[in-house]
Specification:
Keywords: Membrane, Transmembrane, Transmembrane helix. The mean pLDDT is 91. Strands 5-4-1-6-7 form a 5-stranded parallel sheet, with helices on both faces. Strands 2-3 form a two-stranded antiparallel sheet. With 219 residues, the protein is of the alpha/beta class. The protein is built from 7 helices and 7 strands.
């Protein structure tokens, strides 16, 4: 009896080859997925770092308004990075690229008393811009909302053209969002940063850009 059982077991197909095939397929699938993810991130990273503004020569067509995209305040004042955006907008304003400002951004987490837009307005006024030339969007919490709410202010004031102002690492996504929501022409003026950790922000922007491209499919 024991001999027959041993013979039957010897003739049974082993499950080890099946497990080996399954394991190899799983490894290959994971490897291909990792390569695809790496290529995706690399392609987006190249798009981000190569963006130089629209128009590419950095000279926007004269427009009704400049839209400064928000960033964090420090102690209710623009952070050094946000000041770079505001200083670029100021130079364009003084050169006659636009007549009015829209500053964007809601209340930061962490106990801020002013919205990003209010902090930006205060900075511009301190630099000599008449308060009447500054409109605020104090509700938005993302680049998409920045531009949607800015559009509402443009429509209320019968403005049709704008220059969007931000950092270089953020410019390509801002331009893509502007196209999606209907800005025409799309103009994005950008500044490089001397105060931000650019590799960190560029890497973070890859994730933010990916999230935007997925969200765009459902808009």
């Amino acid at each position: 009896m024991a001999r027959k059982e041993a013979e039957l077991k010897a003739n049974e197909p082993s499950s080890l080859p099946r497990r080996s095939v399954w394991l190899k397929r799983s490894i290959w699938t994971a490897a291909l997925g990792a390569i695809a993810l790496l290529l995706w991130c690399l392609s987006l990273y190249i798009v981000i770092v190569r963006f130089e503004g629209i128009p590419a020569d950095g000279r926007p067509v004269k427009s009704d308004v400049g839209i400064v995209l928000g960033a964090r305040l420090w102690n209710d004042e623009p952070s050094p990075g946000l000041k770079e955006r505001l200083d670029l907008a100021l130079s364009l304003y003084r050169e006659g690229a636009f007549r009015s400002f829209i500053v964007t951004g809601g209340l930061d987490a962490g106990g801020a008393k002013l919205t990003e837009a209010e902090g930006m307005r205060n900075y511009l006024v301190a630099q000599g811009v008449p308060e009447a030339d500054i409109l605020m969007d104090s509700l938005s919490r993302s680049t998409y909302e920045n531009l949607i709410y800015a559009q509402d202010l443009m429509e209320a004031n019968e403005w049709s053209s704008a220059v969007i102002v931000t950092h270089s690492y953020h410019g390509s996504r801002a331009a893509d969002i502007a196209r999606k929501v209907g800005f025409s022409p799309v103009q994005v003026s950008v500044t490089d940063s001397k105060v931000l950790n650019i590799p960190y922000h560029q890497t973070r922007e890859v994730l933010a850009y990916t999230k935007w491209l997925v969200s765009k499919l459902f808009l």
